[in-house]
Amino acid sequence: MKFERILFPTDFSDHAAHAQGFALDLARQYKAELHIIHVVQLFSYVVDFGMDTTVQYEAVHHTLQKMMDELAASLSGEPMPVRAELVQGNAVAEIIRIAREDRSDLIVLGTHGRSALEHALLGSVAEKVVRKAPCPVLTVRMPGHTFKMP
Fold first, then answer.
1. Which residues are CB-contacts of 75 (< 8 A; sequence separation ≥ 6)?
2. Are 106 and 81 in contact (CB under 8 A)?
3. Read out DSSP for the chain?
4. Which among 26, 24, 38 is positioned nearest to 82, based on CA atoms?
5. What is the pLDDT of residues 91-120, one digit of tens each?
6. Going by fewer Cβ within 10 Å, which terminus of the chain is more open, N or C?
7. For residue 13, how many other CB atoms are within 10 A of its CB?
8. Domain extent at residue 60
9. 13, 125 in Cβ contact below 8 A?
């Protein structure tokens, strides 16, 4: 088995930071390209409530871009190629799309990131990615985090 392209979606949570270590180690070991993405999911308040949220979105986007740039800069000394980008859309759909387009050999992501309420309302991104991914998926659980049985 050879990994040439590894996709690492991050939500900048502690769980994602823990999974990042696995993605980095695998990319180093296999000399694979590491593609880091963060998916910005917009909510349509303009349509639903007649509110213009352009300024707020631009501020959030600017902050996320700064976080992604800092992450990319922290990895600039790595021996393998690293790409980092923000994409806009539904997290699951964008992760799957990019994995297909990049012909990723592996997706590495944390098992948690959302709050309990978000998980109950929206489901787990990791669970959906595992079901729909065009390649193997390594899900990484943070030590000490316990699962609650449904």
1. 24, 34, 36, 82, 84
2. no
3. ---SEEEEE--SSHHHHHHHHHHHHHHHHHT-EEEEEEEE----HHHHH----HHHHHHHHHHHHHHHHHHHHHTTT-SS-EEEEEEES-HHHHHHHHHHHHT-SEEEEES--S-HHHHHHH--HHHHHHHH-SS-EEEEPPTTPPP---
4. 24
5. 999 999 999 999 999 999 988 655 444 444
6. C
7. 14
8. 5-140
9. no
Give the separation between CA 34 and CA 93, rounded to whole angstroms.
Answer: 19
* pTM confidence score: 0.85
Q: Does residue 149 form part of some domain? A: no
Task: Give every CB contact of residue 110 below 8 A, 6+ residues apart in sequence.
Answer: 11, 13, 15, 16, 18, 19, 126, 139, 140, 141, 142
- Whether 36 and 83 have beta carbons less than 8 Å apart is answered as yes
The structural domain count of the chain equals 1
In a domain, 115, yes or no: yes
pLDDT averaged over the chain?
85
Amino acid at 28: R
Instruction: Answer yes or no: are the C-beta atoms of 109 and 19 closer than 8 Å.
Output: yes
